[in-house]
Write a structure and sequence with these properties.
Blueprint lengths: L3 H16 L3 H51 L6 H4 L4 H5 L3 H17 L10 H8 L1 H4 L7 H4 L2 E8 L7 E8 L9 E9 L14 E6 L13 E9 L6 E9 L19 H21 L3 H6 L1 H32 L16
Antiparallel strand pairs: 1-2, 2-3, 3-4, 5-6
Organism: Cyprinus carpio carpio
Protein name: Nucleosome assembly protein 1-like 4a
Family: Belongs to the nucleosome assembly protein (NAP) family.
């Protein structure tokens, strides 16, 4: 592994190679960089139009999402025609003994559920439990509240407004808070950075805003009550005081941390990055494919991608180990280290 001094010399040498070019060639390279900057600006416009297309098609998807919400909540009962699904091929692939077991379990479920449940019980809570990224945020005290979650939607910013999208979580009336909808706004930027324009790779989330949850008294799951005894120094009397301290909860999602104008530390940077990833995951995966996460089918697709990424990562690790072994053959008596790496 190269030391910092050697790496610095390496990068400087690469820069110097450009400066050693003839003046006429450098002028042409500058012209190419101007073209590259123009391309980056065109790409930014492309993503702005993509955002407009997303907004347009969100309106076309909405009737389906509204119907999904009504079925999940039990507001409507789908017709026999709407409930038809070609599962014959899936059943043929099951072994005979598994088919018998499945039929028995279905019969038992039907007899146990003589009182037909309304809609699809715990639809969104089940999704939260199934998806690793969401399950990590979920605490036991969150589950009774998420049983009241009826729908999650995404809204895109209107034309002429700064690029953003809003996640909306709709709840039926409950004993925990008075809000009927909780929101999280993700603000985006789709333009090359003035200081580093060539790093532009498309829209990025730059900030997010949550909302105030109007908790009923004693129902706030984002805090816990701690009792402490205090002894008076003079009189020696003891009193008990209570105070609220923060605790982990999914509902902290609606009270995101803010980046300081003076910069961020590593922990805050990681927290915000994770928050942005979760917001993007809701928008791109969970909301449009909710039923497939409920059944687990979408999880199989996600796991396939994770396995491929892991295999690639393992190969990279092996390559790194191989490099370390090569460096281990270095003999200082025969081949002294380069002058750049000498420590004073």
């Amino acid at each position: 592994m190269l030391c910092k001094t050697a790496l610095s010399v390496f990068w400087v040498s690469r820069t110097l190679n450009f400066h050693l070019l003839p003046k006429t060639v450098k002028r042409r390279v500058y012209a190419l960089k101007r073209l590259q900057l123009q391309s980056a600006n065109i790409e930014a416009k492309f993503y702005e139009e993509v955002h407009e297309l997303e907004r347009k098609y969100a309106g076309l998807y909405q009737p389906n999402f509204d119907k999904r919400r009504d079925i999940v909540a039990g507001a409507v009962e789908p017709t026999d025609e709407e409930c038809e699904w070609q599962s014959d091929r899936e059943e043929e692939e099951l072994a005979e003994d598994l088919q018998k077991k499945a039929a028995l379990e279905e019969k038992q479920a039907d007899s146990a559920g003589a009182d037909d449940p309304r809609g699809v019980p715990e639809f969104w809570l089940t999704i939260f439990k199934r998806v690793d990224m969401l399950a990590e945020m979920l605490q036991e005290h969150d589950e009774p509240i998420l049983k009241h979650l009826q729908d999650i939607t995404v809204k895109f910013s209107e034309p002429g407004q700064p690029m953003s999208f809003t996640l909306e979580f709709y709840f039926e009336p409950n004993s925990y808070f008075s809000n009927t909808v909780l929101t999280k706004v993700y603000k985006m930027k789709s333009e090359p950075d003035a200081e580093d324009p060539f790093s532009f790779e498309g829209p990025e989330i730059i900030d997010c805003e949550g909302c105030k949850i109007d908790w009923h008294k004693g129902k706030d799951v984002t805090v816990r009550i701690v009792k402490k005894k205090q002894k008076h120094k003079g009189r020696g009397t003891v009193r008990t005081v209570t105070k609220e301290v923060p605790q982990e909860s999914f509902f902290n999602f609606f009270n995101p941390e803010k980046a300081s104008p003076d910069g961020m530390d590593v922990d805050l940077d990681f927290t915000l990055t994770t928050d942005f990833e979760i917001g993007h995951f809701f928008r791109e995966r969970v909301i449009p494919r909710a039923v497939l996460y409920f059944t687990g089918e979408a999880l199989e697709d996600d796991e396939s991608y994770e396995e491929e990424d892991l295999e690639e990562g393992e190969e990279e690790d092996l390559d790194d180990e191989g490099e370390e072994e090569d460096e281990g053959d270095f003999d200082p008596t025969k081949d002294p280290p380069p002058a750049e790496c000498k420590q004073q």
